[in-house]
Amino acid sequence: MLRKLRLLLMPLFVLLVACTPIQQQPTGESPTSTQLTFLISGDPTDQTAYQSLIDAFVSEHNDITFELINIPSSGDFRKRLTADFAAGTPPDLFLINYRRFPPYAAKGVIESLTPYLAQSSLIRAENYYPQALAAFTWQGELACMPQNMSSPVIYYNKALFDGAGVAYPSDDWNWDEFVTTAKALTQDTDSDGMTDIYGFGTEASIVRMAPFIWMNGGDIVNDPTTPTKLTLDTPASKEALAWYIALQTTHKVAPDAVAEESESSESRFLNGRLAMFIESRRAVPEFRAIEAFDWDVAALPVGKQRASILHSDAYCMSAAGKHKDAGWAFIEFANTTAGQTILAQTGRTVPSLIALAESPVFLDPTAKPAHSQVFLDAIPGMRNLPIMVTWSDIEGILGTELQSAFTGAITLDEAIQAANEYSAEFFQGNE
User: Fold this and answer.
1) Confidence band (pLDDT; 50, 70, 90) for 32?
2) Contact at 8 Å (CB) between 273 and 197?
């Protein structure tokens, strides 16, 4: 009788076991949590800043966790991103410069943020600088949400200016005054025939030279919207390039190829051996650690007109992502006043949120640089490089040829001719 009862109860026992939830081992996170992968490219200070942003977001959304992946090399970052998309395992979110997102947008792998922004109760498009929004717009859709915008400025070592008896840069200094200043600051301090302090340091790229081309009334391409060729051989463009290249080849105020190879201009500035350095807002967190001397920023010297170039990064969401609501929640938070304040206080960014950029949070005179207003003053004359799929290829060609001309390895005419020849195939899709 007992055996028969056991046989009758066995099926019921099996059914109850099958319906009983399996108890998971503790993992430190909620069993209902959503994990987002977030890919960035930056130095350790960047990683720390974005981790702080993530921590602030997670404190309000404890059902969401993050895997923050930092690929320091921008080239390796793009290779990783491309490979992840090809493998069907893209990050949920990634941060990218406007010059680099078009290849991904063209393949349809970036989720349009236009409908998300239109329905948001926290952020509105009209509260952001239109130049930044336009730079991330692809075929009428907002591909990514810009979190910052910047322009190149002149960082200068006040101690070297004081020691040489040179006045600090004025807001309206011109190209001739810039050359005179750089010459006065370039010194052989131990009289051994070798330059010990350079007046100016730069990278010889189109990103650095573009503002000066535009200041001189020239242009880089024949049509900013649908370019079909470079226009560096026009008189105005060529004159601006010649002036910039002469800073090294003629005036010798910038390190030559050997000197730059032995120590970068950025390192020289950090170590007090470079008087002026051209860079975007990106350099501020590292420069704030300088204790040996005081420094500040000044506007680019003015040509025939004022001009500057846009530097902007944005949060993008993968179209194949499985957690888009959570991804948008982070992008939305990151671009609120609270979110952008976290990054602005690190010194790393010029907020894309207009009210915040114009507030004491960014314009804090007690935090270096003292004259952050310089970044905002550049905005009316700000332009962007072409938004096109093959621009990275063209920019790479320009970088190679302009670098060779800047170091005197080839003439400017040879650089322009080579750039025209090698870039032609990358414009063919726009013809």
Assistant:
1) low
2) yes
**CA–CA distance, 156 with 158 (Å, rounded to integer):** 6
* Integer Cα distance of 105 and 108 in angstroms: 5
The class that CATH gives domain 34-150+311-376 is: alpha beta
pLDDT bucket at 25, cuts 50 / 70 / 90 = very low
For 355-395, the pLDDT digits (tens) are: 999 999 999 989 999 999 999 999 999 999 999 999 999 99
CATH 3.40.190.10 assigned to domain 153-310+384-430? The reply is yes
d(CA 221, CA 283): 29
Query: Which tokens go with 428?
Result: 């063919």
Beta strands 34-40 and 64-70 are parallel
Rounded-to-integer distance, Cα 32 and Cα 315, Å: 25
- Alpha carbon of residue 417 to chain centroid: 29
The DSSP annotation for 241-279 comes to HHHHHHHHHTS--S--HHHHHHS-HHHHHHTT-BSEEEE
Peptide bond into 369 cis (omega under 30): yes
pLDDT for 429: 75
> Between vectors from CA 268 to CA 394 and to CA 191, what angle results, nearest 5°?
120
Query: What percentage of the chain has pLDDT greater than the value 90?
Result: 91
CATH 3.40.190.10 domain extents, the chain:
34-150+311-376, 153-310+384-430
Q: Of 344, 367, 342, 349, nearest to 289 (Cα)?
A: 367
Residue 40 near residue 70, CB atoms below 8 Å: yes
Q: HSE on the CB side for 252, CA within 13 Å? A: 9
pLDDT attached to residue 400: 98
Q: Residue 184 and residue 166: Cα distance in Å, rounded?
A: 7
pTM greater than 0.85:
yes
Q: What is the rounded CA–CA span in Å between residue 30 and residue 65?
A: 9
Q: What is the pLDDT of residue 9?
A: 36
Residue 18 in this model has a pLDDT that exceeds 70 = no
